[in-house]
């Protein structure tokens, strides 16, 4: 019987722009080290379990989806699960048939903390993946010790791997990240325009990139460069 890919059956689609190459990190930073580690997790299987923590806008979802893209390009069977979006309508049976995967990325792990059935299902899945030599990458908004897990055995398992705390970008880094993302799109984003956007838009990186995508479409449609007057008109700033 042909297995239906979970990515399709769950309606979960990877963001095509979520790649390691466009995850901005300064040289020598913890974030750069984390990206290198996640590549190694796929390439060498030396790190079967990695736990990422970070606050809103730190790029956890980007990294998990980037890991999936990277693993998929290597021919691995992958699955990305954004638990905050799934936990309210999916069944715990979701975890029951994932043992065939080579690489599983669980986002927003805090969404199942305190939900006993979900915790037990994850505990069994964790053991299955570990025993079969598969890779598991998880992300949450806090350290596992701070999450309200009821199943202490699961909490213990989640502390076995490597843990990295992803650092949010400061304003200077956000500007550089925005300009790097613009270059990847073939756009020229000057320092003045990038600074203008940072001063007038929410500082959340996801929203900044979303507005950049909107500007890219408008620039292409009107054949205009990204100047402050044009940006002001398009975004009604």
From TrEMBL:
Limits of the Hda lid domain: 171-235
A Pfam family the protein falls into: Hda_lid
InterPro entries according to UniProt: Chromosome_initiator_DnaA-like, DnaA_dom, Hda, Hda_lid, P-loop_NTPase
GO biological process, one term: negative regulation of DNA-templated DNA replication initiation
Top-rank taxon, per record: Bacteria
Record NCBIfam families: DnaA_homol_Hda
Protein name stated in the entry: DnaA regulatory inactivator Hda
CDD domains linked: AAA (cd00009)
Organism encoding this protein: Cellvibrio polysaccharolyticus
């Amino acid at each position: 019987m042909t297995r239906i890919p979970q990515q399709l059956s769950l309606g979960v689609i990877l963001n095509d722009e979520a790649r390691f190459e466009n995850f901005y990190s300064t040289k020598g930073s913890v974030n750069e080290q984390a990206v290198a580690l996640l590549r190694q997790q796929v390439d060498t299987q030396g790190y079967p379990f990695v736990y990422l923590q970070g606050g809103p806008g730190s790029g956890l979802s980007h990294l998990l989806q980037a890991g999936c893209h990277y693993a998929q390009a290597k021919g691995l069977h992958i699955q990305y699960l954004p638990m905050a979006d799934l936990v309210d309508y999916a069944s715990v049976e979701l975890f029951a048939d994932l043992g065939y995967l080579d690489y599983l990325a669980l986002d927003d792990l805090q969404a199942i903390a305190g939900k006993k059935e979900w915790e037990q299902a994850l505990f069994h899945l964790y053991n299955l993946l570990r025993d079969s030599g598969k890779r598991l990458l998880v992300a949450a908004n806090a350290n596992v010790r701070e999450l309200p897990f009821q199943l202490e055995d699961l909490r213990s398992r989640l502390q076995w791997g490597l843990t990295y705390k992803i650092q949010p970008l400061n304003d200077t880094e956000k500007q550089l990240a925005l300009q790097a993302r613009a270059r990847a799109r073939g756009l020229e984003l000057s320092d003045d325009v990038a600074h203008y956007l940072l001063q007038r838009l929410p500082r959340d990186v996801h929203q900044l990139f979303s507005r950049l995508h909107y500007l890219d479409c408008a620039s292409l449609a009107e054949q205009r460069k990204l100047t402050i007057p044009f940006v002001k008109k398009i975004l009604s700033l």
